[in-house]
Structure formats: C-alpha cells, structure tokens
Design goal:
Layout: H1 4-9, E1 20-22, E2 27-30, E3 35-40, E4 43-44, E5 52-53, H2 60-68
Antiparallel strand pairs: 1-2, 2-3, 3-4, 3-5
This protein binds zinc ion (ZN).
Length: 74
C-alpha cells in the first residue's frame, strides 16, 4: 500500500529516526521511541500529538509474534 520510496524519506518528527511500516496496523513505527504514527486514507500522519505509544515490551512486529505465539514447540 505504502510507497517504499516514500517510506525511505519519512522520519520520526520527534527524533528524526527512521520509521518502520506496520502493514497490519497501518502505522508507522519509531522503534527507538516506541511511537506509532497512524496512516489515514493512505496518508501517514507524522505528528507527535497523533502518535500512539507502544506500551508493551518489544515493537509492533513483536506484538504480532506474541499473539500468534504457541508454546507447543519444545
Ligand atoms: Zn522517534
């Protein structure tokens, strides 16, 4: 959905760090600060006041891992 070249030029407005695209949640994630910026109608909203803090340990990708995690592998 989101243009990769667009992603490369987008940075966190807070720390100016790189962002990771989370296609599942339609968010751009600043892994350094654990902020997630929403993407609305395909337009990234890179505003600190719109950002969501990722409270759990680990990043958004980890969150998906936890949900699908099954402790049946020994
Ligand atoms: Zn940041």
């Amino acid at each position: 959905m989101l243009d990769k070249s667009l992603l490369e030029i987008m940075v966190c407005p807070h720390c100016k760090g790189g962002l990771t695209y989370n296609a599942q949640d339609q968010e751009l994630v600043c892994k350094v600060e654990q902020f997630a910026y929403p993407i609305r109608d395909g337009i990234p909203v890179l505003l600190v006041e719109e950002a969501r803090t990722i409270a759990q340990s680990g990043d958004a990708e980890h969150k998906a891992d936890v949900i699908s995690m099954k402790k049946d592998e020994s």
